[in-house]
Amino acid sequence: MSSRTLDFFFEPRSIAVIGASPNALKGGNALIKNLQRGYSGSIYPVNPKYVEIEGLPCFPKIAHIGAPVDLAIVFVSAHLVPEALRDCAAGGVKGVMIQSGGFAETGKKGRDLQETCRQISAENGMRLWGPNCMGLVDGRRNLVFSFLNPAMWEKGLTPGDVSLIVQSGMLSAGFLIDLMSHGTMGVSKVCSIGNKVDVDECELLEYLVSDMDTAAVALYLEGISKGRAFLDVARRSTRPIVVLKGGKSPRGAQAAMSHTASLSGDDRVVRGALIQAGIVEAKDFKQMMDLSRALAMASEGMRPGGVAVLTFSGGAGILSADFLTNHGMDVAILSGETCRRLEAFFPPWMPVANPIDLWPAAELVGGAEAYRRAVEVVMDDDNVNVLLLHAFAGGFRLDLGLEALASVSKHKGKPIFFWLLGMHDEAMAFQRRAQSLGMPVYRELSRAVEALHAVCCHGTRGPEMAVQNPPEPVPVEIRSALQEVLGSTPPVDGPLDEFESKKILSSVNIPTVQEAIVADSTQALSTAQRFGFPVVLKGLAQGKIHRTELGLIKLDLFNRKQILLAFEELIDRLEGAGRVLIQKQIKPDVELICGMIRDRQFGPAVMFGVGGVFAELYEDIAFRIAPLSRRDALHMMDSIRAKPLLAGFREKMPIDRDKLAQVLTALGWIGLEAPRVTEIDINPVAVVNGKPVALDATVVLRQPNE
Amino acid sequence: MSSRTLDFFFEPRSIAVIGASPNALKGGNALIKNLQRGYSGSIYPVNPKYVEIEGLPCFPKIAHIGAPVDLAIVFVSAHLVPEALRDCAAGGVKGVMIQSGGFAETGKKGRDLQETCRQISAENGMRLWGPNCMGLVDGRRNLVFSFLNPAMWEKGLTPGDVSLIVQSGMLSAGFLIDLMSHGTMGVSKVCSIGNKVDVDECELLEYLVSDMDTAAVALYLEGISKGRAFLDVARRSTRPIVVLKGGKSPRGAQAAMSHTASLSGDDRVVRGALIQAGIVEAKDFKQMMDLSRALAMASEGMRPGGVAVLTFSGGAGILSADFLTNHGMDVAILSGETCRRLEAFFPPWMPVANPIDLWPAAELVGGAEAYRRAVEVVMDDDNVNVLLLHAFAGGFRLDLGLEALASVSKHKGKPIFFWLLGMHDEAMAFQRRAQSLGMPVYRELSRAVEALHAVCCHGTRGPEMAVQNPPEPVPVEIRSALQEVLGSTPPVDGPLDEFESKKILSSVNIPTVQEAIVADSTQALSTAQRFGFPVVLKGLAQGKIHRTELGLIKLDLFNRKQILLAFEELIDRLEGAGRVLIQKQIKPDVELICGMIRDRQFGPAVMFGVGGVFAELYEDIAFRIAPLSRRDALHMMDSIRAKPLLAGFREKMPIDRDKLAQVLTALGWIGLEAPRVTEIDINPVAVVNGKPVALDATVVLRQPNE
């Protein structure tokens, strides 16, 4: 469905308000007044009790309007909504925004009512927005389609180019008003989506990333309904996207359940998914807006790279370097030429280095001149791609010539970020002016660095990147090999044994350790001679998963005698119920864990981490959603903190990154191709001389008939 | 030295300004004008060129004033400062504040000049503040002892009860003006200390923590001059202390060197030291002030414990729970009684749980009433010790009755923190009013939780805690045992061998593995029989530290033949230069690293972490400054992320925490008692059946004659 079909929500030619009221204390009155303040199309109050509201003729029903209605806003008691919807459908209304509450968020009865609404709209091809939402505000077109108190917009809307999608109603309102009245950030379209019975964040995102009035989209979501579709939209977007996801901690998720009946999913899967789709993850409400406004200003061509810090305080320079380093960003090393040119207006005792403390120069040539010349010089340095300027508004005669700065920034393609201290009014004015020129300003140093980092990271994504790094599709021969193995796999509902599990892995070309099922001790011995000593014997039996504790793993078998004894013992312990596996014994340089799970929101997801207790202790694992691109797989390896282990820690051979990427990609293929496979654990993937080999593995199946 | 001796800086009865000027563009003029605006003592401009400045008689030299001068503020070119100091000394001036720059921060010549100043003041018993600083501002007494532009104080100073010590001059000014003009936070004494040639952060901290006008102290420092003394002051303080330490990343530290010639020290040592002294560590400038103002408001008797979140938005409630959990804080589980009382005014479909979404109740009984009743109920719940209230100022008719809230909060001893959204002016007014009633307000949710966390943590410190947990002094018998061993230790300048190292550890009762030096293979064999098999043989030789690589460690010796062969080989590899050590071979359940280093700022510091590559990879180590209290040692174990390993991970026996605490404490004793020992590594400390044992160790000595 083309996103343009949502135009009747954003640009309706006529609006009916069902539940309009002349009572100034009611939302049904606020709706009319809010429309009157900026909306230029036709407004039709609907309420059988009145003939006129706020100077407009009031209609008893939609059917009486006698003119086409693009959008109906419904604000009546929940139990009256289905009837209103039927009226709308009969009247040819294109979209309905239900702002009333009392639906799925209130339990069983409300859920049924909501389902009735969904059915009415589906049957009539009429789109629904909400219910239980605050509607829509458009800061650029000066539109308020909401029951919120008109007093809030008295001072006017501040137009901007960040659009918002907010699941929580009150929050979207609170947010919006807070932002608007501070004047240092404007908005384009603010969408409060509530229970999203029909129109959801995915469809709205698709609409907004191609909206001419939107330069960046920020979303606060408690659950992502259609995870994979959402990621697809994000991946194709040229506009930066920021997501704040509520409900992360166990307690948080619990609250999410009882709040909007939304599913929270595993925090780590969500994080991986967002990274994969090039979405910036926000941590807090205000921070989400702080990052969004920088991203909206960022020139699309910005290259990530070295940062130069120009400051009036050595101390703040030091702290900036700390923050940049913590974000993994480069504090640019200035070229010799740059240093020479800077030294020309610095006192001779001052060693010039980045961060550049301009105070000593300011005392010689004046503050404004020191800044002007330093920016000019630093902009010429090829090692510098971004500038972080510390500024002070009011009191220090530091008029920075913002127009000239913006112009050189644009000309050189090197963005400027400001950290600003100063007197309240002067600082506000400075911020507004700088931001109108495309240079984001922050009052908190760490926030300035976070925003700078977000913009630099965004520079490495976008549709171009998506084209260059397509997800690896499942090769035909892999698909058929996998299906063949699955066809001959026992119809288990639960974990397959190690040998059967590895057959599935082998079918998608994941390297596995040399192994065989042996029927008797003679066969065990001959196989051991073929593999070479030492070997391992393992007893496999359905349901016996704690094999070490059950004595079903026999390591360090170096000779005939040891093998015979071990085989005997295993047969004994298996009590006739299983079989014996022999493996070449491998001493890994490093042990990894790879796996696949099915996430409720995103479907098959691939997991990667280091083996042993530490991945668990330090929660150092990464997820990506299948299918993975080669870049996704490599990025996954780079994203764990134990990554130095992969690069040849303590004289070991560095891992073959391509081979490991193939393992990760192939795990995703199984998830995509084999719905019966619910979970895979390869624990460990042994790395020997840089090559990954599945040493032990469990594939979990669900009932074939499901 | 009693801190009261600094009164002549903070409350001088008379002030001379050396370098006073009638030129309104000069700092020497600003100094006079700033004094005139609020200082009620005598002001004496000093400058041989003028007879009158700003209506005051001007003196050519201090000697001409003819009245006692408590404080002289010097603002003349650096090379003229020594002469001015001599004049001050001759005139009986008690304290001099040098605000001029051009000293140690400018290289060799400036350093010499600064040293001259130090000598003059030391010889004359006259105290020096600065040089290269912005002086002092007192928001409560309305005093500005600074050359900063008088325009900055035009709107007046906002009095508050947080005092500041700031090393960086420009920063202290920027800060102050930013804070003042925003009106949501006031200050008491703001001290810009510059190069601190005499008066330093330690002495000022001591002064401020007993200052009646100061409820909390915040410090921005690039280096801590007298680390141990600083910690002692902090430990004894009843006032909360917040420190922001600049110069952490390698690049940051580099900048610190060239900025104030200050030493940065090891970030991790600093962190440990701050924790140990109960100091809150800040991350950023604004955040430091945000935490300080909460700490200044916090009632001293506050108990840490469960947090109740009251919100107008389920989404914000979820995120609050996330933030609290991430800070390791409890989201309180409401008692049954509390739930019943809440349900009385909630709609029946609403399951009441913490975080408490008040919106559904607000729709029934009104917003203000819902908040009022919910606070009343929650305050009675013994599971709740702190309240986090989400508020909205303006627009929603949510007048919260702040006086009543503050009163119930004080009565119950349960602090209230606010996260506030809202319209700009209304929000400002709300914040001022709430804070004047002792309830801190934040505009960013995560910041509100950070502040709440800081206040709760502070509740567990203070002088009472210090008395209950004194550092463990070195027992007399340990001291003599240690000195005896050191007396017989070879006069090495560098690492001692493993055997000599462990003799030192044993002398302070650190358990070590059973081991002996063996002269020949016969002795090796008889010792092995005594220890029990398997054993380890190690070749010890001066300077051969990579023993594994040199083949000097022989593990897994199970029988006579293996011992004889191994002994032969070691003798061969040692080439007559060393000796052979035999050890009982131990299989540790867990391996730890413990150590001691000498920090430039804090002296002997004890290190603790898990063994193997992971402590290094995840930087999961903790430091504390010697001497350690038992609580310090236990807290150190709890502070590493790998702490579950100590509690009996995967069916191992939990570690004997007391025994491990003794090891850590004893390492500190060596640092305190033996200045020759520069470094100790016990790597690993093996844990076997819960008991720690030093398996391998290196003690590094420096030249005895040093």
Write a compact overview of the structure shown.
By secondary structure, chain A is α/β, with parallel strands linked by helices. In chain A, helix 5 (169-182) links the parallel strand 10 and strand 11.
Descriptive account of the structure:
2 copies of one chain form a homodimer. Chain A is an alpha/beta fold and 706 residues long. Chain A has 4 domains: 3-295, Rossmann fold; 307-440, 3-Layer(aba) Sandwich (Rossmann fold); 469-511 and 586-706, ATP-grasp fold, B domain (D-amino Acid Aminotransferase, Chain A, domain 1), CATH 3.30.470; 514-585, ATP-grasp fold, A domain (Dna Ligase, domain 1, 2-Layer Sandwich), CATH 3.30.1490.20. Chain A is 39% helix and 21% strand. In chain A, β3 and β4 (56-57) form a beta hairpin. The radius of gyration of chain A is 31 Å and the shape is flat. Chains A and B meet through α5, α8, α10, α11 and α13 of A and α5, α8, α10, α11 and α13 of B.
Short key terms for the protein model shown above:
homodimer; about 700 residues; alpha/beta; Rossmann fold; D-amino Acid Aminotransferase, Chain A, domain 1; 4 domains; 7-stranded mixed β-sheet; about 40% helix; flat
| Level-2 CATH architecture of the largest domain in chain A | 3-Layer(aba) Sandwich
**The number of domains of chain A:** 4
Total helical elements of chain A: 25
> What is the CATH fold-level name of the largest domain in chain A?
Rossmann fold
Structural class of chain A: alpha/beta
Give the overall shape of chain A, derived from the CA principal axes.
flat
Q: Which pair has the most extensive contact? A: A-B, 93 and 93 residues
